[in-house]
Structure formats: C-alpha cells, structure tokens
Design a protein that fits this description.
Helix content is 55%, strand content 18%. The chain has six helices and seven strands. Strands 2-4-5-7-6 form a five-stranded mixed sheet, covered by helices on one side. The chain has a two-stranded antiparallel sheet with strand order 1-3. β6 and β7 form a beta hairpin. Bound molecules: adenosine-5'-diphosphate. This is Signal transduction histidine-protein kinase ArlS.
Length: 252
C-alpha cells in the first residue's frame, strides 16, 4: 500500500482549516446560546402578564360577578395585560424579522414627508408637542419605508415615554449621511447604561419601564433596522437633562 506522506505545507493548510472550523463552531455555539437566552427571556417576559391574567380570570370564575365594580376592574386588568402580551409578541416577530437579514425593500423616500406623517400620528395619539426642523424642504433617502418608519417611531416613542416636555426632531444631511435626530428633555440615561440599552430586553429601570409599557426590545429592533440599511444608531444622554437619539442613513 502506498504511504501517505503529509507534507509540511499540507499540514499547515490543515491546521489553518482546523482553526477556521473551530471559529465557525464557536460562532454557531454563540448564536445558539443567544437563541436559548432569547427564548428564556421571552418566556420570562410573557409569564408575568399571563400570571396576572390567570389569577384575575380564576377569581372571576370562582366568585362570579358578585360585585360589578370589582369585576370590571378584573376585566380591565385582563384587557391591559393581554394588550401588553400582544404588543410584546409583535415586537418578538419584528425582532426576528430584522435579525434574519431579510432583504430590504429599499426605494427613494421623502424623509420630510415621512417624518411629518409620523409626527402627526404620534402627536394626536399622545397629545404631546413634537417639533420638526429640517435643513432642506425635501430630503430624499433610499430606504425600506416601513422599517425606517418603525425605527423613527421607536426613538420618538421613547422620547415620549421618558420625558414630559416637548420633543424636537431634526433632519440634517452631511456629505456622508442623512441624520434623523430626536431630542428630549426628560429623565435621561446614566452614562454607564448607554452601552446596555441596545441589548434585547434591557431596561434601565424595569419597574418604570413596565409602567410605561416598555418591552426592552425597541432599541434592539431599531439597531437591527439601521444595520440592515448599513447605517447606525447613536444615543447620548445626560441624566436629568435629556436624551439625543440619532439615526444615520448613509448616502449611496
Ligand atoms: P423600552 O420598550 O423599555 O422603552 P427600549 O429598547 O426602547 O425599551 O429602550 C431600552 C431602555 O433604554 C428603556 O427601558 C429606557 O430605560 C432607556 N431609554 C431609551 N430611550 C430613552 C430616552 N429617550 N430617555 C430615557 N431613557 C431611555
């Protein structure tokens, strides 16, 4: 039988392949771990509202409607917790969609018109003063309209949730980017928390965020959307002074 001689350079090649292979396995394991973590976190998030719903429903079943005011309170709670679950599952699906690397349906959009429409919608829903400033009367970007709209709504929504004053939205352009900046004058974010807020389910203050109906997924989704557009999201903040969230869309 012929003897197989592994030459030195072949050995080197094999070693290189082994290193690449190991790295790939490492990355797969990391992704799997992230998925596992997501399922665990998501289940945990759903558990609280479900427990509340179940206990109120149990109570109604056991006692019947003896006291109308009490029953109404139970039904209202069931309704608001169910709405919370609905919102959360929508966000889970959104997150999965923006993480899957699905292709973008990009086309030219007039950013001024898009933002005017978003602001009109949010103003009437939340009864808050939201001002829009734009450097040019028409700013065209190439983007997936639904996704970009979602990212813009997420950052304005946060400004609404975490402040009580007016909100300013600025549309600017420089040589490389179109920039959407949302400025609020609210509670702000401590410096050491900024790096965490883009993590899925991360909230600076869990209790407060629950009160405001937050899921801790908004910024993770906005970050994915900007990544899909080869852009970026940046947040800077001063506690007690306010927060600035910026979306950068690269010019093609
Ligand atoms: P949530 O649904 O909880 O708002 P996000 O992912 O959108 O989740 O934001 C993560 C956390 O970052 C929030 O829970 C909040 O603590 C903090 N945060 C985001 N935007 C602001 C803001 N404009 N002002 C203060 N805190 C903010």
């Amino acid at each position: 039988p012929k003897k197989i001689v592994i030459q030195h350079d072949t050995k080197d090649e094999l070693q290189k392949m082994a290193v690449t292979f190991n790295r790939m396995i490492g990355r797969l394991e990391e992704n799997l771990e992230k998925q596992r973590q997501f399922i665990s976190d998501a289940s945990h998030e759903l558990k609280t509202p479900l427990t509340v719903i179940k206990s109120y429903a149990d109570h109604l079943l056991r006692r019947g409607i003896r006291n109308e005011a009490e029953a109404l309170e139970a039904i209202e709670t069931i309704h608001s917790e169910a709405t919370r679950i609905q919102k959360m599952t929508e966000r889970f699906l959104n997150l999965a969609d923006t993480e899957s690397g699905n292709h973008l349906d990009a086309k030219p959009i007039d950013l001024v018109i898009l933002c005017q429409n978003i602001i009109k919608q949010l103003k009437s829903a939340y009864k808050r003063e939201i001002n829009l400033y734009f450097a040019n009367p028409s700013i065209t970007v190439s983007a997936d309209e639904l996704k970009l709209k979602q990212a813009i709504i997420i950052i304005i929504d946060n400004a609404i949730k975490y402040s009580t004053n007016h909100i300013d939205v600025y549309l600017n352009e420089n040589e490389h980017n179109t920039i959407i900046k949302v400025k609020d004058y609210g509670i702000g974010i401590p410096e050491y928390e900024i790096k965490n807020i883009f993590e899925r389910f991360y909230r600076v203050d869990k209790a407060r965020s629950r009160e405001t109906g937050g899921t801790g997924l908004g910024l993770a989704i906005a970050k994915n959307i900007m990544k899909q557009h080869h852009g970026e999201i940046k947040i800077s903040s001063t506690e007690g002074v306010g927060t600035e969230a910026e979306l950068f869309l690269p010019k093609s």
